[in-house]
Design brief:
There is one protein chain. This protein is of the alpha+beta class and about 240 residues long. It has 2 domains: about 140 residues, 3-Layer(aba) Sandwich (NADH Oxidase), CATH 3.40.109; about 80 residues, no CATH class. It is built from 10 helices and 4 strands; from the N terminus they run H-H-E-H-H-E-H-H-H-H-E-H-E-H. A 4-stranded antiparallel beta sheet has the order 1-2-4-3, with helices on both faces. The radius of gyration is 21 Å and the shape is globular.
Length: about 240
């Protein structure tokens, strides 16, 4: 089976809700698609995500009821749970700084740092902690008030509350999920993104910390004809497209 082009994959991808039990999928290909998903755009390159690749039939049978026994979950050959880990921002910021050590060299005196290096180190060493740090939402509202004042005089980034950063983390995790589904489509594999799940029980089953959040569960397999529920419907493009 030859890989599809991007346009072919986009048009092939459908939310498939019934998979063929007689057609297993290759775990290594799904893993490859997840590796490609990790190349998706991510805010500030923070990569606040984790991908839980479920290949055990026993575990799938435990997860299906937590997805309210949707056909897409019950008949899935494999599942992938996309998890948001905003709580790992310190670890991810340090990883970016460590990467800069490898690129620019370690412990360079500030006077010898190139402008690009200075900006990057200040970004992950100062701006990221300022943006992500919060205590019960209190510091976030103080930052928000400060931004309101500064924003009177010049353009400024305004999404600084804890709830704002949560949205940012989920958006970038969603980009990884979409990249995964398109990569799967390019391989001729099918998927279905499911937001309907008991996220608390699912987190407990996967042994996730309380601070982790489920972004979505994606089922994987090979479609049966009845697995695609009718023709694709989209609002006319002219209603959603605006050239400015």
């Amino acid at each position: 089976m030859s890989e599809k082009t991007v346009s072919e994959a986009v048009n092939y991808r459908r939310s498939v809700r019934v998979y063929d039990p007689e057609k297993p999928i290759d775990t290594t290909i799904v893993r490859k698609c997840l590796e490609q998903a990790s190349l998706a755009p991510t805010s500030s390159n923070m990569q606040l995500w984790e991908f839980y690749h479920i290949t055990s039939k026993e575990t799938i049978d435990k997860i299906a009821p937590l997805c309210f026994n949707q056909n897409a979950a019950r008949t899935a050959q494999q599942l992938v749970v996309f998890v948001v880990r905003k709580d790992l921002w310190r670890k991810r910021a340090k990883a970016n700084l460590a990467f800069m050590d490898r690129v620019f060299g370690k412990n360079n005196p500030k006077s010898e740092q190139r402008s690009r290096e200075k900006v990057a180190r200040n970004y992950y060493g100062k701006l990221i902690p300022f943006t992500y740090f919060d205590v019960f939402g209190i510091f976030g509202y103080l930052k928000y008030l400060m931004v309101l004042v500064v924003g009177i005089f010049r353009p400024i980034y305004r999404e600084v509350r804890n709830s704002d950063m949560r949205v940012v983390a989920h958006k970038t995790c969603g980009l990884a999920a979409q990249t995964f589904m398109l990569s799967m489509a390019a391989e001729g594999y099918d998927t279905c993104p499911m937001e309907g799940s008991d996220t608390w029980r699912l987190k407990r089953l996967l042994g996730l910390p309380r601070s982790a959040e489920i972004n979505m569960v994606i089922s994987c397999g090979i479609r049966k004809p009845e697995g695609v529920y009718g023709e694709r419907f989209r609002i006319p493009f002219e209603e959603v497209y605006r050239e400015v």
